[in-house]
Structures are given as C-alpha cells and as structure tokens.
Amino acid sequence: MADRVSCFTKNTVALRMEVLCDNCPPGGVGIYNPGFWGMNIEEGKAYNLVMYIRSSDSVDLTASLTCSRPSSALQNLASAPIQDINVSNWTKVELQLLAQGTCRTARLDLTTFKRGVLWLDQVSLMPSDTYKGHGFRKELMHMLLELKPQFLRFPGGCFVEGNWLRNAFRWKETIGPWEERPGHYGDVWNYWTDDGLGYYEFLLLAEDLGTLPVWVFNAGISHNDGVNSSMVTPFVQDVFDGLEFARGSADSTWGSVRATMGHPKSFPLKFVAIGNEDCDKEFYQENYLEFYNALKEAYPDIQVVSNCENSSGSLGRPADLYDSHIYSNAIDVFLMKSKFDRTPRTGPKVFVSEYAVNEPKDAGQGNLLASLAEAALLTGLETNSDIVQMACYAPLFTNDNDRRWNPDAIVFNSWQHYGTPSYWMQTFFRESSGAMIHPVQITSSYSDSLAASAITWNDTENSFLRVKIVNFGSHAVNLTIRATGLQASTAVNTMASRLTVLTYSNVMDENSFSNPNNVVPIIRELPNAAEETHALLNPYSLTSFDLALEQKAGVV
C-alpha cells in the first residue's frame, strides 16, 4: 500500500511493505517491478540500483534481478543483500548488480524473510554503461549520430502544449534531483511521465550529440484552453528563467541551479520556438508579440521561430524563422517538393520541424513508399536551402510495445532496434548541411514522377558531386547525368565514385525486428562514372550518384 510519508516534498507517496509471515516461503516475500514490458538484462553487465528505505527495525532485504522463463522456475540473474544498516530515518541505498545471465524480460525483485514493516521510495535501476554516462542507450544514440544531426528540437510538439494547460510541460518541474521531480500526466499521448528526461537532460543530450538545442516552449496555450496577453506575463518570465538556466553564468539565479546539477558551463541555446502548431489559436498572435518583443530586447541573438507559415505571403509578425509541419499522403508529400519554390526570399527563413507521410494506407508502420515521397520533399528543401534553413523528421523514436503514432524513424523495444526506410532515406542527406548546392535539371518523359537535387561535398579524402534522384513511378528510367558547371580543372575519378540505392521489389515493404535490413541502402561501385554518366533508375527508388572529383592531370 502507499503512505504519504516520503522525505521528498514533491513526491510524498512512498510504498509501505508489511511482511506478516514468520516462516516465509522459499525465496521470501516482497515486491517486484517488471519495468516497461520487461527489462533487458545481459550477462556480464552491471546495473546500478538506487532506492530509499525506512524502517523502525533493522532490515534484511535482498535485491535481485530475476527472469521468468516458460515451464521453469524463476531464474536469479543477480542479487545483493541489504542488511545491518540503520534505516530508522529515510536512507539512500546504492548497489551494483552484476548479471550472471541474459534475459530480455527480466524484473527487479525486493524480497525478505523478516516479519515487519518497511517503506520504500524512489527505486531506480539503470545500466551502468550508457551513452556518455547520461542514461541513453548507446545503440540508439549511435543511430542518431549516423544521421549527422545538426540540431535537436525538444521537448516535443503537442507534448509542450498539453490538451489542457495544467498538463503542459513545465521545465522547472523537470530539473534538479530526479527524486524531487513531481512528474506530470501527458494528456495528449495519455501516459504519465516522471520527467527524468527533463529540460536539463535535453540540453545535455544536444551537447553530447554535438548539435544545437532548439527549445519549443509553451505560449500560454494548450489544445483546449489558454491565456491572453494580459495574463501571459508569468509564461514570458518562465521562458526568461529557462534561458538563464541554459545560458546564464554559474553565479546567476538559474545558472547556479544548472551548475549545481554538474554543468557550470552554459549551453549554446540560440533557437527557440514560441508554441507548437498554435498559429490559428485564439490568443497566439497577441501572445506571440509579448514573447518576441521581450526576447529580442533581452537576447538579440536569439533566433525566434513562429508557428505561422509564410510560404506564400506576408507573415504579418516579426520572426527569424517560421515553422512548417508537413504531414499527408504519399502523393501529396511527393508533390510538396516544389512547396517553397516561390516562397519570398526576403523575410524569415523556413524551419520544417516535422514532416512525414502519415496516412495509414500509404505509410503503414514505415515503408519504402513513404520514404520515397519524403525523399522527394527533401530534394525540394535542399534546392531551396537559401530560404529553408532547417528540417527534421517526426517522430524520431517509438517503443514497439506502445506505438502512439505511425510511422516513426527508429523503432525499439527493451533490447532490439531498427531503422524504418524513412530513417535510411535520411542517410542520403546527411552530408547536405554546409554543402554547396549544385544546379540539376531532369529531362525525361517520366519527369513528373522524378525529383532530384545535387550538392558538392567533401569527406576526409575526396570531393564529390552527389546527385540524388527519386523515381516515384513504376517504370525504370534511363538517364544521362552530365557533370556540368564544375571548374575546368576538375575531372571525375571513376575508381572513387560510387552508387547508393534504396529500393525493394514491393514498395509497401517495411523493416522489422526479425528483418531489420529488409529495406536498406545498397552501395555499389560506379564503373562508368565520368563527366557524362549513363544510369538506370529502378522503379520506386532513391538513387545517389557520388561522382568523385579530382584535379585533371597536368593542371595546377
């Protein structure tokens, strides 16, 4: 049962465990936690256990990692005793459990043979080996790094607003010791979060990934209620406090909180978004100006993102960037390759902060068709990069046991993960940031089903002209690629050139845990690479031609 006896003022409820047996059964009695759809425990790895205990008597408790297998008794994977300590007051106990076996659906057991009453609170079990020691699974972070990300938008979109303001993300409630974070109900996606992944952790993750943080904050508006400009001042002040937490000196009020958490150096927070998909909400326009004017006066370098689009006319409000969310069926997303062709070149830049094919009949749980439509969109964003500054796919991750949205880029469970075709599609564009746009023109009887963009980029050894072409049709297409517009002293190095193709026989095919590499890019040599290269595009495919460039012999 639960009692309001915790030593943590923001989390007053603790678990009361009363043991009634004098001769308890083998294995003892107690409680267990299976984690989220089972804990992945691996042989030879260490797991750090933290918990708080209180009892008027001495305790004789055992912490164990156990595994229930079909047709067999509960298997003990690791255990450690907790005894001979005074816990008459709340006491923090820390243990490390070394696994002697592997189980994908393990659980944490706390058991005893001793009669009596004890209270338990804030029990946490974490792997000791996480990405840079900050709690994230290494293999999932490596998936992100493979995309060469330039920024991290957080903490989300609708999650920021809430269905009601009382359930919106409040950054101040997500910092400090994790034991003191009250958590909140995410009423848009219908789950409780303890906010262990909070504002500070997002800033730290951006730093660990080598990306710029982009903070989306609440504009005093939820899906169903809001405040007008006469009442928005506390929200504005909350944003200022959040900026001081991220950017302020270690001697400032909120910067000192950050320093106490272990990060005296400030974070390079220069991008903020005022709200999420709120442009048409009742109070957004007036609230936006309150935030914008105050931010620009105090932080002139801050880049402010508006929720209101400007792709076809005047925004009507000052902004550095405006937010564009692109969700639709596959054909519509493919055609949006030209969405920004006629966008005014003066005024705010474009931030496509969410895009995906999300109509169920086209997207499934992430298939080739969706990824090709999205690739076509990205070629359009790339060719319009003088006005489109940033873009990111959404959502990024989903737990396969609890899908709330389809599709997603990366799917995981407690021990497995894979990238959807949309994830692999993005690897074709990972060298685009900072690259030079190269003009490209397609002449074909199938041009209506094609999309293309080209860049020149450098790796550690070579320079490349990369031509990316999406064939969104059911016919194979013959093309000739002519490398024009290069310097007269430049030639194509056939030996170093290569071809990368994302395709499959069934355009609706997906990846899965059992077949994670069903639809993935295939890299091949390009033996006919030259200033004029003949190519065949597979039906329903994304093809990248990387023509290695070198100085012509005898040219200095």
Automatic annotation (TrEMBL):
Name one process (GO BP) from the record.
L-arabinose metabolic process
What Pfam families does its record include?
Alpha-L-AF_C (PF06964), ASD1_dom (PF22848)
List residues of the Alpha-L-arabinofuranosidase C-terminal domain.
353-541
- Give the EC number(s) under which this enzyme is classified: 3.2.1.55
Does the keyword section mention Signal? yes
What the entry lists under InterPro entries is as follows: Alpha-L-AF_C, ASD1_cat, GH, Glyco_hydro_b, Glycosyl_Hydrolase_51
Q: Taxonomically, which superkingdom?
A: Eukaryota
Question: What are the protein's UniProt keywords?
Answer: Hydrolase, Signal
- Report which reactions are catalysed by this protein: Hydrolysis of terminal non-reducing alpha-L-arabinofuranoside residues in alpha-L-arabinosides
GO terms (molecular function) for this protein are:
alpha-L-arabinofuranosidase activity
Please state which protein family the record places this protein in. Answer: Belongs to the glycosyl hydrolase 51 family.
Name of the protein in question: non-reducing end alpha-L-arabinofuranosidase
- What organism is recorded for this protein? Panicum virgatum (Blackwell switchgrass)
